[in-house]
Amino acid sequence: MRKYYIDRIRTVTIILVVVYHIIYMFNSVVTEGVIGPIMQAKGLNVIQYLLYPWFMVILFLLSGMCSNYYLQTHTAKEYVSSRTRKLLVPSTIGILVFGWAQGYINMAISHAFETMSDQIPGAVSYLIMCVSGTGVLWTIQVMWIFSMLLILVRKIEKGYLQRAGKKLGIIGLVLLGILAWGAAQILNTPVIAVYRFGIYGFAFFAGYFIFAAEEVTDTLKKYALWLVGAACILGILYAWHDYGNNYAVEPSVNSPLAVAYGWMMCLAMLGAMKRFGNNGSRFLTFMTKKSFGLYVFHYLALSACAYYLTQYTRLPGAVIYILTALAAFLGGLALYEIISRIPVLRFCILGMKGEKKNVL
């Protein structure tokens, strides 16, 4: 039986990722590598604080859950092959084939071309643009690493963690937030802040060993309203306490309040969606098929639109916001529809053969 609530959480989260990036492009808090403020709308910055602590965490948690479900009916060899094609290929070969486009826009926004030497060979410049264009694909790079580690861990733990995990009650599930906080303190890369291997690894393996159990998600479903209420309170407290600080780096990103809010939101999303959103719809079916493509391509369409409109037009800030938002959603989907129909590019950039399945 298909777990529609997982599709719904993934779809909602990816839509919120797009919304976050639209606001991020013009925000006044984390201004490196973005356009920056184009109008007086500082209140929009609050949305970044409300989204950043949890939306990537829950994607890794869902990835772990889906890995569990996949391995119930497939061999480890099939899992490795599938994850390598769908995650590693787009985040390596795909970057070399198409990453230059996002890299060019990123470097233009950052004024990197103004400081680059003319003596750099063309091949090296191309590689620099490709690496600069990694963008949102860092997520699937990290997911692939965790997927390969999972195969090794499964051989060692022999099912003990799953048996223990399904016995956790609501108190135990909430208290896992303490482990999440501990994980958030380790394995964070010093330069590129998005590579938070500690907390994302914890979420992935917790998804596999704990949250894939029906008993666990049924518990969250039972207490869904309480979890939503607690998440709202923690979110308000976090946004109030940290507003104005750079939410993407220490000490804000891994503070006890940030992690507590992020963890509670993950529990609330799982419980509420299983209770109220575990049913299909036409829109859900459409977005389930398109969400990975939207995730991969939205930032290219968004950043290109934002850059060229701010550089070459004098449109009001509100108009640029609206056009950039349309470009992110419609342009991202349009790029996906085009690339997914070209066999070689479809494989290299999306890791797809003939099917169009969600992979996050």
Would you give an account of this structure?
This protein has one domain. It is mainly α and 360 residues long. The mean pLDDT is 94. The radius of gyration is 20 Å and the shape is globular. It contains 15 helices and no strands.
Give descriptors for this structure.
360 residues; mainly alpha; 0% strand
List the helices and strands and how they pair.
Elements: H1 4-25, H2 45-51, H3 55-71, H4 76-109, H5 122-132, H6 138-157, H7 160-165, H8 170-184, H9 197-211, H10 214-222, H11 224-242, H12 256-276, H13 282-312, H14 317-339, H15 343-350
Helix pairs in contact: 1-2, 1-3, 1-12, 1-13, 1-14, 3-9, 4-5, 4-6, 4-13, 4-15, 6-9, 8-9, 8-12, 10-12, 11-12, 13-14
Question: What is the compact description of this entry?
Answer:
This protein has helices spanning 4-25, 45-51, 55-71, 76-109, 122-132, 138-157, 160-165, 170-184, 197-211, 214-222, 224-242, 256-276, 282-312, 317-339, 343-350.
Q: Number of domains in the coordinates? A: 1
Q: Uncertain runs with pLDDT below 50, 5 residues or more?
A: none
User: Which H/E pattern describes the elements?
Assistant: HHHHHHHHHHHHHHH
The first-to-last residue Cα distance is 19 Å
Structural class: mainly alpha
* Extended strand count: 0
Which overall shape is indicated by the principal axes computed on the Cα atoms? globular
